[in-house]
Amino acid sequence: MKNKVKAYLGIDPGSVSGCIGIITEESFLTTIEFSKHTTKEWLNELRDFSLDHDCFAVLEKVHGMPGMNVVAVSAFMRNVGNIEMALIALDIPFIEVTPQTWMKYYNLKRAKDESKPDWKRRLREHLQRIMPDFKVTNDTADAMLLANYALNHKGK
Asked: How far is CA 154 from the centre of its chain?
């Protein structure tokens, strides 16, 4: 049996723009964007990837936010449940980390008066400094920062 390559997954469970960021110890970088896949498609893609890789995941620990309507919270939490069940079914060990924890690791904090677009721009710029060859988007920045966090914490 061949040795599996270690892979670190960062999972941003956003209901619309959620994403799985993946970094391997061989410096392979990729993402699985939920908006571009059905649940079955991203599950199959993750399963196929996990067959050849020894995966460890960091799942962003999230909850409904003030201002979200019931339908949005329901879809968001269903997505979280789907992700958790996928990780369990695929036997991928994971930890949950709050946004405050991983952002503190990068010394990032959203200013009280900072707009969401400005905040997202800062996250993208920070990731681009860490991974200059990776094409960063608003939908992939959080997940890849989480994947890098997973790589650097390796289950600690």
From this structure: 15
